[in-house]
């Protein structure tokens, strides 16, 4: 651990958002009042579809976008009315936003130069960060002469060289190809483990969220759907929205009707026993469905539509009472020529959701 | 890959398409220029009827003429001051406008229109605007009689010319520079803001370096244009006066050739002016153009 790591770990500050709102006019409210607290040193991923307000939230924390109401505290300081430079945040942009006319060194040293740091100290800091990110050999190059991954690293270096209390990422990996994205994800996780900066990372990619986050904040139309650890979000989604957003392929959601003792699908097949009456939605992960086997649920019949062999496993798509159900099975299961599948939904793996609000109803099935 | 043969199956078609344009340049540019160079080695009779080859005599005569050097010096002074101002003022306006405005297409069109106004028209307007008795500076003359007298004072006349030229150059340069400023990604400003740079600092550290291609373009165009386009302004506003104070090289060539009927002298000066402009442009590309980073 070198001086930079220690300094950033020491500077890491919590972020507290109180009643924060953003509206461009009374009709277009991007973020209704929001309350959330991000702990110091925590890696928070803000996840949501495009237009859910996640970038707006990030820009308001950074000071690049005005707040319409409420407070933002970094550490104990109220910052919502401060200029970006007085907030102690650094940011990595989606398109990197490196200064094309400056060398890698100048890019990373610019904030220090603006802050009036002595030349020798500047060089020392930039060199230390460049070494940490494997950029030491590229300091004299212009951004245009670098690969996508290297530019990304320069952008990160430019952000951490100031030893910020908060590190903000705005979809930083979406411009990279698949392989590089994977590598950068690992590098980012490793970097966070080393420097321990409070990090807010905005993305629409659930894999990035699952692999990087200490906690995931899922936004839908500006509202917080769920804020929890990746594990809790995967196993206990708080709503249909979350259940469908996380997992590949996502959780199967089926409409069911309760008759007081059983839950029936649209085609009348019984999937579970439950003392419920009325309309509900049930969810089950593709990997939790049992094919041709014994489990504690009811057996249902479904028509196989197609299969995708992915090497590690296969994904089957079957028609169950008019809706498509995806099932993850071990690779090479001998079902190639069959049209009908016997499925079993283990009751302990079922998730129950309110049909109207989409919110989870934990415990209502007797499971969890 | 798209090869040329897939675009144009007939090899004569591209030539045919370029022909009208080539014809125009050859007819109205290369032929006259070649003529001028050719005549500069001959002594032409003013009313036609034969010419005598005199070698470099014309050049010797022109280069030993004090008036030629004076006009040349005035041309350089005009070129430097007028074109610097014609880039600097639009630059300031564009930086200010870029802060808030997203220019609509109609707005941009309206702004470029003055570029289409003939130099002579601009000249007539400015002759009126700067008239010492009825123009905008007339009240100044009432308070301090004789302080503004472009008809008598050479400096005042020169200022009038520069003002007219700069006015004519503002719209085009403004649009080019503003387009350059607006093509800078928003995140670049945001990144600089996050790095702690205020609006003023961002102008010099981010905006100006990134619009170097546009600045260079406007400067090169202005430098070459100021040498030639001054003619219409001089002819309508000052007629080269008072006392030759606004006789730039272009105007002197015209007067020598068409009032003085010194066709050989005018041709020789045209050739010299031409070489000067070519050298100037080449120098700009050599010394400035290379340093420009076109990458975004």
How is this structure best summarized?
The complex is a heterodimer of chains A (368) and B (296). Chain A is α+β, with helices and mostly antiparallel strands and 368 residues long.
Layout of secondary structure:
The complex is a heterodimer of chains A (368) and B (296).
Chain A: H1 3-11, E1 15-25, E2 28-38, E3 43-47, H2 54-62, E4 69-74, E5 77-78, E6 89-92, H3 104-114, H4 119-132, H5 148-160, E7 166-170, H6 178-195, E8 198-203, H7 206-212, E9 215-220, E10 223-228, H8 230-235, H9 240-245, E11 252-259, E12 262-264, E13 270-273, E14 277-284, E15 290-291, E16 299-309, E17 313-320, E18 323-330, E19 340-344, E20 351-354
Parallel strand pairs in A: 3-8, 3-9, 6-7, 7-8
Antiparallel strand pairs in A: 1-2, 1-4, 4-5, 9-10, 11-12, 11-14, 12-13, 14-20, 15-19, 16-17, 16-19, 17-18
Helix pairs in contact in A: 3-4, 3-5
Chain B: H1 4-7, H2 12-39, E1 42-44, E2 51-53, H3 57-63, H4 66-100, H5 105-112, H6 119-129, H7 138-143, H8 154-182, H9 186-194, H10 199-210, H11 212-237, H12 249-259, H13 263-287
Antiparallel strand pairs in B: 1-2
Q: Please, what is the CATH homologous superfamily of the largest domain in chain A?
A: P-loop containing nucleotide triphosphate hydrolases
User: How many domains comprise the coordinates of chain B?
Assistant: 1
Instruction: Identify the CATH architecture of the largest domain in chain A.
Output: 3-Layer(aba) Sandwich
- Low-confidence spans of chain B: pLDDT under 50, at least 5 residues? none
What is the overall shape of chain B? globular
Strand content of chain A: 25-35%
Counted by DSSP, the helix tally of chain A is 9
Biggest chain pair interface: A-B, 26 and 21 residues
Determine the structural class of chain A based on helices, strands and strand pairing. Answer: alpha+beta
Distance between the termini of chain A: 42 Å
User: What's the CATH superfamily of chain B, by name?
Assistant: MetI-like
The first-level CATH class of chain B is given as: Mainly Alpha
Order of helices and strands of chain A: HEEEHEEEHHHEHEHEEHHEEEEEEEEEE
Order of SSEs of chain B = HHEEHHHHHHHHHHH
Mean pLDDT of chain A: 87
User: What's the main sheet of chain A like?
Assistant: 6 strands, mixed
Adjacency order of strands in the biggest sheet of chain A: 6-7-8-3-9-10
Shape of chain A: elongated
Quaternary organization: heterodimer
The CATH level-2 architecture of chain B is identified as Orthogonal Bundle
In the CATH scheme, the class of the largest domain in chain A would be: Alpha Beta
Family (chain B): Belongs to the binding-protein-dependent transport system permease family.
Transmembrane segments (chain B): 12-30, 76-96, 117-138, 158-181, 271-289
Membrane topology (chain B): Multi-pass membrane protein
GO biological process, one term (chain B): transmembrane transport
């Amino acid at each position: 651990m070198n001086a930079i790591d220690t300094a950033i770990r020491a500077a890491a500050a919590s972020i507290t958002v109180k009643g924060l709102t953003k509206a461009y006019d009374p009709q277009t409210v991007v973020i209704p009042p929001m309350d959330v607290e991000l702990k110091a040193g925590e890696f928070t991923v803000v996840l949501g579809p495009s237009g859910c307000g996640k970038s707006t939230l990030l820009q308001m924390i950074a000071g690049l976008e005005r707040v319409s109401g409420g407070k933002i505290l970094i550490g104990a300081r109220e910052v919502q009315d401060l200029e970006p430079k007085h907030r102690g945040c650094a940011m990595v942009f989606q398109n990197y936003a490196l200064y094309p006319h400056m060398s890698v060194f100048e890019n990373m040293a610019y904030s220090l130069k603006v802050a009036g740091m002595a030349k020798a100290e500047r060089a020392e800091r930039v060199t230390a960060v460049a070494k940490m990110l494997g950029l030491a050999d590229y300091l004299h190059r212009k951004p245009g002469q670098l690969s996508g991954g290297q530019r990304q690293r320069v952008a990160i270096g430019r952000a951490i060289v100031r030893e910020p209390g908060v590190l903000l990422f705005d979809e930083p990996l979406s411009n990279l190809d698949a392989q590089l994205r994977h590598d950068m994800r690992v590098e980012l996780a490793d970097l966070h483990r080393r420097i321990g900066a409070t990090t807010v990372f905005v993305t629409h990619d659930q894999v990035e969220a699952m692999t990087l986050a200490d906690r995931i904040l899922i936004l839908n139309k500006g509202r917080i759907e769920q804020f929890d650890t990746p594990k809790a979000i995967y196993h206990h989604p708080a709503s249909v929205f979350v259940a469908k957003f996380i997992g590949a392929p996502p959780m199967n959601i089926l409409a069911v009707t309760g008759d007081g003792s059983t839950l029936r699908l649209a085609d009348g097949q019984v999937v579970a026993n439950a003392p419920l009456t009325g309309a509900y939605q049930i969810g089950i992960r593709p990997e939790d469905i049992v094919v041709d086997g014994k489990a504690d649920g009811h057996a249902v019949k479904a028509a196989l539509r197609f299969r995708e062999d992915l090497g590690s496993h296969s994904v089957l798509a079957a028609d169950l009472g008019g809706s498509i159900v995806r099932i993850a099975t071990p690779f090479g299961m001998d079902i190639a020529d069959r049209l009908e599948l016997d499925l079993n939904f283990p009751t302990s793996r079922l998730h129950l959701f309110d049909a109207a609000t989409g919110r989870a109803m934990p415990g209502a099935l007797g499971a969890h | 890959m798209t090869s040329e043969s897939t675009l144009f199956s007939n090899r004569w078609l591209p030539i045919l398409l370029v022909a009208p344009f080539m014809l125009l340049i050859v007819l109205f540019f290369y032929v006259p220029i070649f003529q001028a160079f050719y005549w500069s080695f001959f002594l032409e009779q003013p009313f036609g009827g034969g010419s005598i080859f005199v070698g470099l005599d014309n050049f010797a005569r022109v280069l030993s003429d004090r008036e030629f050097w004076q006009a040349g010096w005035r041309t350089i002074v005009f070129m430097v001051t007028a074109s610097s101002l014609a880039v600097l003022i639009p630059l300031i306006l564009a930086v200010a406008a870029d802060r808030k405005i997203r220019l609509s297409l109609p707005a941009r069109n309206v702004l470029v229109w003055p570029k289409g106004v003939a130099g002579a028209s601009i000249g007539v307007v400015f002759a009126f605007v700067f008239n010492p008795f009825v123009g905008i500076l007339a009240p100044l003359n009432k308070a301090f009689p004789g302080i503004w007298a472009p008809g008598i004072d050479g400096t005042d006349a020169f200022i009038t010319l520069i003002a007219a030229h700069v006015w004519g150059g503002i719209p085009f340069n403004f649009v080019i520079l503003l387009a350059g400023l607006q093509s800078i990604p928003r995140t670049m400003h945001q990144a600089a803001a996050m790095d702690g740079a205020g609006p003023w600092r961002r102008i010099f550290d981010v905006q100006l370096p990134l619009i170097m291609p546009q600045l260079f373009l406007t400067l090169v165009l202005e430098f070459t244009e100021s040498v030639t386009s001054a003619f219409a302004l001089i002819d309508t506003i000052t007629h080269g006066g008072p006392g030759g104070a606004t006789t730039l090289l272009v105007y002197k060539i015209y007067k020598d050739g068409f009032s003085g009927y010194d066709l050989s002298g005018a041709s020789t000066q045209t050739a010299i002016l031409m070489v000067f402009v070519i050298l100037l442009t080449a120098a700009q590309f050599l010394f400035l153009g290379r340093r420009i980073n076109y990458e975004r």
